[in-house]
Each structure stands twice: as structure tokens, then as C-alpha cells.
């Protein structure tokens, strides 16, 4: 059964029983309605922050913009500092005359020369021992 009154429509189902009642009235305590959700959604654009000059939406937008700007500034500062560091390292190496790649290359070359000389000494010892054994 459908009941319509003052723009309201109610649909009832089942068989009415003696003592059944139906009450339709204004919800004055806002219980079990969507009023809280509507109020919360309304906070998005209501100016209640920053001395009633900004809404949550504006404050959040301002905050993310500030964080983005500061982050970009820090990235640029880091690039500048890295460039200064690399310049200082290059200048120090040019003054000290030490190039680590060149030093490593020399170390390998000297190690190979030492090993070759060691083989020459071993061959000389074997040859000298042969001469001694022949006498």
C-alpha cells in the first residue's frame, strides 16, 4: 500500500495487525539521518580556518603547494651543493696530483713487473744450481 502526503511517499507491505501504529514526524535529534554527513561535506568549502579566511579545501591546497615549492627548492639546492662538492674534489685532486685510476693502473703494472722479475730470479737460481751440480 502506498501513502502520499505533503510530498512524502511511504510504502507499506504485509497485513496490518491490531495495535500496529505508524508515526511520521520530524527528526529533531538528527538520529539515523544523513545530516551529519551533509554537515561534514559542507566543511570542505566553509571558511573556518585561518581566522575564517580559508576553507579546508583552500588550506589543503595551500599546504600541498608549499610542500611542493619547498621540495623543489631543496632539490635545486642539492644539485648546487653536489656541483660545488664535485668542483672542490676536482680542484683538490688537481693540486695533490693524485689520480686514483692512474695509481691503480700503476699498482697493477708494478705487480706484474715484480712477478716477471721473480720468474727471472727463479730461472737464474735453477741455472746456477745446474752449473754447481755439473762441477
Model description:
This protein has 135 residues and is mainly alpha-helical. It has a domain at 35-97. Helices cover 62% and strands 6% of the residues. The chain is built from 3 helices and 2 strands, in the order ββααα. The protein has helices at 35-42, 56-96, 100-134, and strands at 2-5, 8-11. It has a two-stranded antiparallel sheet. Strand 1 and strand 2 form a beta hairpin. The radius of gyration is 45 Å and the shape is elongated. The protein starts with a strand and ends with a helix.
Task: Describe the secondary-structure layout.
Blueprint: E1 2-5, E2 8-11, H1 35-42, H2 56-96, H3 100-134
Antiparallel strand pairs: 1-2
Q: Taking strands numbered 1, 2, ... along the chain, how are they ordered across the largest sheet?
A: 1-2
Radius of gyration: 45 Å
Beta-strand percentage?
A: 5-15%
DSSP strand tally = 2
The rough form would be described as: elongated
Q: What composes the largest sheet?
A: 2 strands, antiparallel
Order of helices and strands: EEHHH
Helix content: 55-70%
Q: Ranges with pLDDT <50 over ≥5 residues?
A: none
Q: Mean of residue pLDDT?
A: 87
Distance between the termini: 135 Å
> If helices are DSSP runs of H or I spanning 4 or more residues, what is the number of helices?
3
By helix and strand content, what is the structural category?
mainly alpha
Keywords:
135 residues, mainly alpha, two-stranded antiparallel sheet, 2 strands, 62% helix, elongated
Describe, in short, the structure shown.
This protein has 135 residues and is mainly α.
